[in-house]
Design a protein that fits this description.
Blueprint (H helix, E strand, L loop, with lengths): L1 E6 L2 E7 L3 H8 L4 E4 L9 E3 L2 E3 L10 E2 H12 L3 H9 L4 H9 L4 E2 L4 H12 L5 H9 L5
């Protein structure tokens, strides 16, 4: 099944999951995760309970892993000691494996792995919901 991650009444990401509960588990209790409405896509907006394509689409550029980590550092104001703890946290072993093996050299804001990464960092307590949104809001544009 396909699930949509919704923020501010806008679909910001789409993920494949076995069921809605599994999709919600990826993003933590603070995320608004719904079954993808028929025909909907990233950027669609909900108004009065109905989904429609947005007529204002922002174009985001792909960034490399160094720039992505810089964005996370900037949003969290992470100190060097906090970053070491973050990198050595055994609860993030899967995150770092995905980061090394599944994430290419460039990362796009709307790729499903971006939402997975932000969800893992929220679940582990390294990002709040507001900081996760700030990463997306501050993503460089094309």
């Amino acid at each position: 099944m396909k699930a949509a991650i919704v923020q501010n009444s806008t679909i910001i990401n789409i993920v494949e999951a076995s069921n809605l509960a599994d999709a919600r588990a990826l993003f933590g209790s603070g995320a608004d995760v719904i079954t993808l409405p028929s025909g909907a896509a990233i950027g669609w907006v909900r108004s009065a309970g109905e989904w429609s394509a947005s007529n204002t689409t922002q174009t985001y550029r792909s960034i490399d892993k160094v720039e992505a980590m810089g964005l996370i550092r900037a949003v969290t104001s992470m100190t060097p000691a906090q970053e070491l703890a973050f990198r050595d946290d055994p609860n993030l072993a899967l995150f770092w494996r995905i980061w090394r093996e599944d994430v290419g050299n460039v990362i796009h804001r709307d790729h499903p792995l971006t939402a997975t990464i932000l969800g893992a960092l929220k679940s582990a307590g390294y990002l709040s919901q507001a900081q996760s949104q700030a990463v997306l809001d501050n993503w460089p544009t094309a």
